[in-house]
Amino acid sequence: MLLTTVAGSLPKPSWLATPQMLWAPWRQTGAALAEAQADATMLAVRLQRMAGIDIPSDGEQARQHFVHGFLAGVDGIDFENKVTMGIRNNRYDAQVPQVIGALRRKGPVHSMEARAARAATKGKVKFTLPGPMTIVDTIADRHYGDRVKMAMAFADLLNEEARELEAIGIDTVQFDEPAFNVFTDEVLDWGIPALLRAAKGLECTTAVHVCYGYGIKANIDWKKSLGSEWRQYERIFPELAKSAIGQVSLECANSKVPIEFLGLLKGKDVLVGCIDVASESAETPEEVAATIRRAMKYVPPERLFPCTNCGMAPMSRELAYAKLAALSAGAALVRKSP
């Protein structure tokens, strides 16, 4: 009960990449880089376990970015001629690659770090992949001319990858869909169907992570524009509750999401974000416990998994792991309480 986990990314060690930044440049190249990525993945899993996290992730240690890390293993994508494009409904501009031909995987994309993560613990381990809608929102299309068609093409590739991760021994495959909180009409129309296509046939636990983004200025400013209540979840949770996805990961700590929205996910495991990835201090165990107890009014404890709000890639390693230790300690407080 109340098994702890993380949303996805964790800070990279300074010997692997430039600290505390997204799109951080690698410190190594070639075979040395692959070796360093595998080492960092195993270290991230071990550090999560040392912090008391029950279901650690790979920490996305082998990816510069949670979307582009997967795209790097796909044919039909031009990384040499990136273009500037507004993403998340023009919340911010990014340099993105272009789809210039039919999409197909060059081979297994994340098997190296999946095997490293699996080898680092005898317990359960999760692995994160970008969701189809979020990929479509993070790449320029010069081939398909149709967002839905391209999303379904990516969903097929993600399904191939997810099946291989399952075969390696990954217990949970999570698809990250922050775009679900931006394009709520499209989510119901084709976002969830594309997600289900990506997860089709998987026998391991499946999850979708829907958050309000990394703790960076563009996302913080956007949240300020959402008013006194953030109601995006209200539209998408009922449809996710009807779906075959087993778990839903969401943002809760220091957010303006009405807590009663958790009740819309009846029948699902709920990964409740109890750690604010935009704050510069670690939560106390008591603060984590308070968030868990609020969530327990709407989610049975056996279906509640205390988690982080989002990935923590831009954060300092010291702060990130202090927050994970607080997450574990807060869950322990609730378990011990009557």
Describe the structure.
The mean pLDDT is 95. The chain is of the alpha/beta class. α6 links the parallel β5 and β6. A 6-stranded parallel sheet has the order 3-5-6-7-8-9. It has helices at residues 30-50, 68-71, 111-119, 132-136, 147-168, 184-199, 217-224, 232-242, 285-295, 317-336, and strands at residues 74-87, 92-105, 126-130, 140-141, 172-176, 205-210, 247-250, 269-275, 304-308. It is built from 10 helices and 9 strands. The chain has one domain: TIM Barrel (Alpha-Beta Barrel), CATH 3.20.20.
Bulk shape: globular
Helix and strand run: HHEEHEHEHEHEHHEEHEH
Q: How far apart are the termini?
A: 14 Å
CATH class: Alpha Beta
Beta-strand content estimate: 15-25%
Question: What's this entry about, in short?
Answer:
This protein is of the alpha/beta class. 38% of the residues lie in helices and 18% in strands.
Based on the model shown, name its key terms.
single chain; 338 residues; alpha/beta; 6-stranded parallel sheet
Write the layout of secondary structure elements.
Elements: H1 30-50, H2 68-71, E1 74-87, E2 92-105, H3 111-119, E3 126-130, H4 132-136, E4 140-141, H5 147-168, E5 172-176, H6 184-199, E6 205-210, H7 217-224, H8 232-242, E7 247-250, E8 269-275, H9 285-295, E9 304-308, H10 317-336
Helix pairs in contact: 1-3, 5-6, 6-8, 9-10
